[in-house]
Write a structure and sequence with these properties.
The protein has 191 residues and is α+β, with helices and mostly antiparallel strands. Strand 4 and strand 5 form a beta hairpin. The radius of gyration is 17 Å and the shape is globular.
Length: 191
């Protein structure tokens, strides 16, 4: 049995056939500057039956999940936690929102290898837009630092027109301008 928390949660989501994508700090680290984290953010798109099967099927000796939190997350299209008891890791399962960006983000997810594990992950562009959206909701400095790191590492390969489309549509222009400016000012001079 593996002690890799990502492998464990991916195996459970696959077992219950729940579509997912790795997001948050794991995704921004994959595309940008590494940073430590003790939780895993995954966007999931289950049916209500798949979600119920997951909650009822998780081994209570290995996992803790609050049925009340799951019910509330389903009602609000929010998130709930699954705690890997033995490892002390927390997994935030974020129900995919019913909005154009969230549907696009999920459709664009791609298969990547993290360590020895193949997982579905949000694209760099979608991770940037999602991080800007989270920055607007709070925790802005950490989210913006992640975006700046991604712009510095992946900047040349990014589809900036795609990012700008969602920045405009979601009203994230000010945060995008700040992150872009910060990334540019930290870039070493060419020469």
């Amino acid at each position: 049995m593996t002690s890799d928390p990502l492998a464990i949660i991916v195996a459970e989501l696959d077992r219950f056939e729940i579509p997912y994508m790795l997001a948050g700090s794991f995704a921004s680290t994959f595309y940008g500057d590494p940073r430590t984290t003790h939780d895993i953010d995954m966007v999931v798109a289950p049916t209500q039956k798949q979600l119920r099967n997951l909650v009822e099927g998780l081994d209570p000796d290995r996992f803790y999940v609050s049925e009340i939190a799951v019910t509330e997350a389903w009602r609000r299209r929010g998130m709930f936690n699954v705690v890997l008891v033995e490892l002390g890791w927390k997994v935030d399962l974020i129900l995919r929102k019913d909005r154009d960006f969230s549907r696009s983000e999920f459709e664009r997810r791609r298969r990547v290898t993290v360590g020895d594990l193949e997982v579905w992950m949000a694209t760099a562009e979608d991770t940037i837009v999602a991080k800007l959206d989270w920055a607007r909701a709070g925790e802005s400095e950490r989210q913006l630092r992640d975006v700046v790191g991604m712009l510095q590492v992946s900047g040349e390969s990014l589809d900036r027109a795609y990012i700008r489309k969602w920045v405009v549509e979601l009203g994230l222009g000010e945060l995008w301008t700040k992150a872009s400016s910060d990334a540019q000012s930290l870039r070493p001079p060419r020469g």
